[in-house]
Amino acid sequence: MTPTRHSDLTSRTLAVIMGGGQGTRLFPLTRDRAKPAVPLAGKYRLVDIPISNCINSGIRRMYLLTQFNSASLHRHVSQSYKFDHFGAGFVELLAAEQSFNSTSWYQGTADAVRKNLMHFQNTPFDYALILSGDQLYRMDFQKIVEAHAANSADLTIATIPVTAKDAAALGIMHINSERRIVRFVEKPKEPAVLDSLKLDRASYEPLGIQSHEDLFLASMGIYVFNREVLFELLNNNLTDFGKHIIPGAIENKRVFSYVYQGYWEDIGTIRSFFEASLDQAADWPKFNFFDPPVFTRPRYLPPSKVNGAAIDHAAISDGCIVTRARILNSVIGIRSVLQEGSYLNKVVMMGADYYDTPARAARPENQGVPIGIGAGTRIEHAIVDKNARIGEGCSLSPAGKPSEVDHPLYYIRDGVLVIPKGAVIPNGTVI
Questions:
Q1: What are φ and ψ of residue 16, in 5° steps?
Q2: Distance between CA atoms of 96 and 103, rounded to whole angstroms?
Q3: For the whole prediction, is pTM greater than 0.70?
Q4: How far apart are CA 35 and CA 22, in angstroms?
């Protein structure tokens, strides 16, 4: 692939990545970590997506805002993104903190940015790029910043065409012939209201849209602000960009839409995370991790070792040991160990942070169960979080159970079985 020549505009752009709140919809994956730190595709973290998009777009200055369980996120970012001393690049994590002006936690996306303006004011930039930390997509941010400048916009919002089925759950923008946003409705439910927000079919060809369906422009939660406009719009107590800041800006500022067409997935629920992860085992995944690269922490692990196995549509990460196992439609994370006769079908296995030892496995709290999947164990339709110890002869599946279950050993969310981080599943367990 020919390297992209980055414009001067991206060098004058500061990225602010929202780390999200408690991540309750991704629980229990967010029980012990911030949402952007959730492992993805065997060897990455969710936060690697927006950071890599920035780096590949020529944006090298990034702040990451977070407030919940930020220790593992801070460790990952500090070990992954090291810029040289002769450049101006950085990825800096800003956790919620008390100050003389505020003693509360972030109350929303706009409030999180507002409480960190003192840090941003010390950084020279002309444009602020606001991003979400829990979306899976690939975008050249140079194009949206260039469109923003060409339109002399105060604010540009990235939008994606969606059908009526999806529009009712998203914030919908209505644009004029200049692509200026003239109306915004959050999660329109009334049929008449939704119908009034349809994208004019005459604009399909100029926008490069090839579809015969009625389409709507949904906000992607990606914004480009002029520096002074950002400070002005946050000079109040409003807490959320989508609910509060954007509607007011549309009335008083030059707000434009940048229409993106491509794969985009909001990783907000266990079901969406599960399906997006398993898609990496498909013949042609919807999201391409190959080119340009998605960056992450370099671990220098050995190649995976397979001592006989039947593998059909699987993505297997570095440093795994697989012994006469059967793996179907699954993603296997770093340092995963699968013992003889184990069977995985539609499983997202996140792997381990270290290789286990017999002495550690023998500790009373680990019940003699080593990290990984024990011999003769079957697992279907499940997420196995990091450092989980699953014993021999187990059978784990959500089949026949309610879609939402809390159990001392496991959880079920959106019909997906989740074995939490560090869990110990004794030999012979049947779920």
A1: -125, 115
A2: 9
A3: yes
A4: 7
